[in-house]
Amino acid sequence: MRTDPGTVDWSAALEWAQEKLGDPAGDVRRLSGGWTSTMLAISGDGHEPAVLRLMTNEPWRTHGEPLTTRESEIQRMLAATDVPAPRSLALDATGERCGHPAHLMTLLPGRIEPQRDDAASLVRFAELLASIHAIEATIDVRSYQSWAWEAKFVVPAWATDAGLWEDAFALLRGEPPAYEPCFIHRDFQPRNVLWDRDEITGVVDWVETSIGPAWLDVAHCATNLAIMHSNEVADRFADAYVTTTGRPPQPYFDVMDVVGFLPPPGRASFITDPAELARLEQRLAVVLPRCR
């Protein structure tokens, strides 16, 4: 076996994965990205390509058993739908064999292309998200959780408009608007969508799947697009979703999503680029007035 997973010894996890795949030979490479996990691609002559998720990063590792279990259950359910999700192959949710909570699944073709901001791609994003929201869950799926916790209601040191953030915190201390619950991905964004040329080939990372407001998925993708590109790109995606589904915007959830990007006290932010932080604040400046 030729491996290049980094400096950490993943031998126990790979031994388990290859037992499940039924093929001791193959190549292993570490996939890029992954805030929560180490993702290893495994190929071999005797099985289809697979991905091994190892929940190695805190605080997700502590909650790795329910997270990996949820992803496995959701993927098994999605196998009966047209949504292009990986198929779950095996689960070591407690990490008894792998040393970390682990989920083995199929490797989908394609690659992430977060740079896409053209009109056709944004429409495809919107249509894909609409198809996810149309799914009727056949298993119990948890209710969504806000990522804008009270502990995060602290004006960030890099902010240029403290009042803007304080107004957002005040809004979120109130009750959210009524919404029609539906199946949501909960982390739908360009880094979780795979492309092959101009076709979407997969949606990955189903650990946070929930029942909740459709607009929270729209908001999360829009915030990511605003951070990576601009508010104009974010709004074009949101408009495409409204055109596709007829669902009206719920800007309260846009504000919830922006604040959710703030780190809790004592933790570093996922976003470190000053330009991206500025665009996050600019997104808040656009969506907060829409709540009035």
UniProtKB/TrEMBL annotation:
PANTHER family: AMINOGLYCOSIDE PHOSPHOTRANSFERASE-RELATED-RELATED. Residues 27-242 form the Aminoglycoside phosphotransferase domain. InterPro entries: AGP_Transferase, Aminoglycoside_PTrfase, Kinase-like_dom_sf. It holds the Pfam family APH. It comes from the Bacteria. This is Aminoglycoside phosphotransferase domain-containing protein.
